[in-house]
Amino acid sequence: MAETLIADQHAHDAAHAHQFDDVEQQRDAATMGMWVFLATEVLFFGGLFASYIIYRTLYPAAFAVASQTQDIVLGTTNTAVLIISSFAVAVAVYGAQTGRRRTTIWALALAIALGVVFLVIKFYEYYQKYVDHHVPGPSFEFPAPYTEPAKMYFTLYFLMTGLHAIHMIVGCGLLAVMIIMARRGDFTREYHSPIENSGLYWHFVDIIWIFLYPLFYLIGRHLE
Amino acid sequence: MPERIVTVNVYAKILAVLLILTATTCAVSYIDMGRMNLVVMVLIACAKASLVALIFMHLRYSRHLMSIVAVGALFWLGILVALTLGDYLTRGWQ
Amino acid sequence: MGAVTTKTEEVQENYLNAEYGWKSWLFTTDHKRIGLLYLVSITLFFFLGGLFALLIRLDLLTPPGDMMSSEAYNKMFSMHGIIMVFFFLIPSIPAVLGNFVIPMMIGARDVAFPRLNLLSWYLFNIGGLCMLYAVVNGGVDTGWTFYPPYSSNFSNTNVAMAVTAIFIAGFSSIVTGLNFIITIHTMRAPGMTWFRLPLFIWSLYATSLIQVLGTPILAISLALVAAERLLHLGVFDPAYGGDPVLFQHIFWFYSHPAVYIMVLPSMGVVSELIPTFARKIIYGYKVVAAASVAIAIFSFLVWGHHMFVSGQSIFIGMVFSLLSYAVAIPSAVKVFNWTATLYKSSVSFQTPMLYAFGFIGLFTIGGLTGLFVAALGVNIHVTDTYFIIAHFHYIMVGGAVMGYLGGIHYWWPKISGRMYPEIWGKLAALTIFVGFNLTFFPQFILGYLGMPRRYHAYPPEFEMLNVLSTAGASILGVGYILPLIYLAWSMRYGEKAGPNPWFATGLEWRTPSPPPKKNFLETPVVTWEAYDISGQPDLVERLHNEDRIYKSALQAEERKREELGVETPAEGA
């Protein structure tokens, strides 16, 4: 009798780790942990944003001219794609909160698909840069007098969007794991911290892009 | 703290606003407003980011501590940018 | 839940003997075992870094620097700096003592994320192995600061590997900090309010803030150097319109606060030691707690004082100079509060307390010379001289290492369940204090006279002071080896320690030594203020009993003397 009780208790608290008093404390810790992690991510990207701000301040004209070489259609499309994927992830979390497993799975699948679309467009853009000799290195070409500062613009472009793309790839992997967990029925109305935290991560990556988009695609448009 | 569940309806409205803001910032960037272009662009980006953080990331419905963490991170980045810019902008001063 | 055990069995079972075998250590998620794993790792790095220091000092024994070439010397001081900063000082107190005592101090069973905690140890060691690879495979010669363009375009040594090593170890530091912040926020025992937390917790909370907010910036700055070296994506390369000074800004944005990652935990240890060994509530608890957080915040506003001669603008130099003075205020507040705590207290001069006194004295010297170098004019005179070397060693070795050793001795009975030999402890503490001052005080004078840092040869008139310094270093070396020997000895042969050998008030002393696997036999409830012994009647009674035994022993001694007819020395004679 007692054993069955304990076994039941155990099944009920499958996700309850020993160091916490209750599930609520555990969820609080998980959410806060994720936010603090995102704070470190803000500063990780922040070093690059700071570099961008400094060099943009030093070379405003070159940055404006260099930004005009970007494909505005691809950039804007990608922004929309990412925002819609963020919406899908929000819906997936909603599905987990309300116990709608199918909603969760399909929304996550949509988010991953959109993430892949984003990456494909991004790598097509990288390819275009290669064709246009806009990749910093020996074959770099840009009309004078902006050759050097434009090189800096493209260096920052590749570093920042590259780091962002790495985060996107990690994010897609995380969401894929969430699909597996959701299919297994790991999430309940009470316990869904993993999917919530993966969602936070995805939204964060979206926010980074929301800033990258104007900084790299839009700053020089009005001078065209 | 009990969770507050946001409906899909709200998410959809936010999505619409975000897409409209994206279109706006793209369109406005072609209008020559001098230095104001950058300001408008950054403000719209901040508005979009805030919407994602507040609604999609549930910051509005979470404990205040999470907002403190988020604002704190931005504040710290602000320190880095402000004091570094403080160097570059005053290099010409004699 | 595990097997059901009776209470008496649980008392005997502790975290050390609960499980055996290497797997039970390498796959443990117990914060206490992870603390010990860290202790082993950082001790190895400490002695490796110490070896480089010894080689540096030996080379400087003679003016021409006969022992090694200038290239070899450049590698020696670089690897000494990198290993000591990133692989010893930064993880020292947080990862060893913090891991061990934080959950116990706040009355928790473990940290919030035990598996992440283990991951942090593995990351640290992977980073450490990368560093060792860089050391044996050509070394690094950029100095621990990795300034471009030398590090990115010119150095022919293993910079990329060293940078990768620090990048990885940096993430272990972030994970530790994150874990502590969440643990302190969410896992405090009933009644353990924020202002009942021991000051060690406050200082480690402040440290964790720096680790979490600063380390990512270091990671990105080093990643940029690596990108410049390997991919030629030169963010700091003047050929691309880049500015090397920007690297210094980003690097020091982390690396100045990093100094406080090293010294804040030591301040926390000292704030534990002084109330315990002076038998008094700390003076101005809230001020000391707030000073920790203030130091953490101020530390991010002063980095430019490392760059007064870098070509940054004079105006921002003045701002940084002013802000640097401001950071002295909370530091001084702490020193005053410790001293005020000592006033009219009954101090017992046991080994940990000796380290605490050492810390206060040496930290004060280090801090006051910090004011000298925060002044723009003086700074230009002593930039890149031995004055700077002496200044930061007084903070990092005189401050951080003293606090670390004090903490190790203080919590050793809790960690091992055994007492260390007190006489040897005192001897080592004194040896280290003497050796330290002999090593580094002459360097203040050398620097003031103009001997530059990072040169392997020097003019003959500096020989005397350099010989003194090298002599001191050898004494210091002996002082550091002593605890290694007698602490290891005491693990087997030391006197058994009770749960609370120091009559300390923290929760970690209200559980057996060594503690059981889940820290407490039952979840503690806190009803007393920090350091207030009167809140724990059992402790007060024990103290009274001890006092009575002590007094009766004194009386017996006196009677004996009277019987033997020996005159007691008159008072005041």
Number of helices of chain C: 17
Name given to the CATH architecture of chain C: Up-down Bundle
- Sketch the major β-sheet of chain B: none
Shape annotation of chain B = flat
Number of domains of chain B: 2
In CATH, what is the class of chain C? Mainly Alpha
Write a brief caption for the model:
The complex is a heterotrimer of chains A (224), B (94) and C (573). With 224 residues, chain A is mainly alpha-helical. Helices cover 79% and strands 0% of the residues of chain A.
Provide structural commentary.
The complex is a heterotrimer of chains A (224), B (94) and C (573). Chain A contains seven helices and no strands. Chain A has a single domain, classed as Up-down Bundle (Four Helix Bundle (Hemerythrin (Met), subunit A)), CATH 1.20.120. Chain A has 224 residues and is an all-alpha fold. Chain A has helices at 2-12, 23-58, 60-67, 72-97, 101-131, 147-184, 193-218. By secondary structure, chain B is mainly α. Chain B has two domains: 1-62; 63-94. Chain B has helices at residues 8-28, 36-56, 64-89. Chain B is flat, with a radius of gyration of 18 Å. With 573 residues, chain C is an all-alpha fold. Chain C has a single domain (13-535), classed as Cytochrome C Oxidase, Chain A, CATH 1.20.210. In chain C, helix 11 (314-342) runs antiparallel to helix 12. The longest helix of chain C is centred in the N-terminal third of the chain and has 36 residues, at 70-105. Chains B and C meet through helix 3 of B and helix 9 and helix 11 of C.
Which features would summarize this protein structure in a list?
A: 224 residues; mainly alpha; Four Helix Bundle (Hemerythrin (Met), subunit A); 7 helices; B: 94 residues
Secondary-structure topology with pairs:
The complex is a heterotrimer of chains A (224), B (94) and C (573).
Chain A: H1 2-12, H2 23-58, H3 60-67, H4 72-97, H5 101-131, H6 147-184, H7 193-218
Helix pairs in contact in A: 2-3, 2-6, 2-7, 3-6, 4-5, 4-7, 5-6, 6-7
Chain B: H1 8-28, H2 36-56, H3 64-89
Helix pairs in contact in B: 1-2
Chain C: H1 7-12, H2 22-26, H3 31-59, H4 70-105, H5 114-136, H6 150-154, H7 159-186, H8 199-230, H9 244-278, H10 285-298, H11 314-342, H12 351-374, H13 376-382, H14 386-416, H15 422-449, H16 463-493, H17 537-564
Helix pairs in contact in C: 3-4, 3-5, 3-16, 4-7, 4-8, 4-9, 4-14, 5-7, 7-8, 8-9, 8-10, 9-10, 9-11, 9-12, 9-14, 10-11, 11-12, 12-14, 12-15, 14-15, 15-16
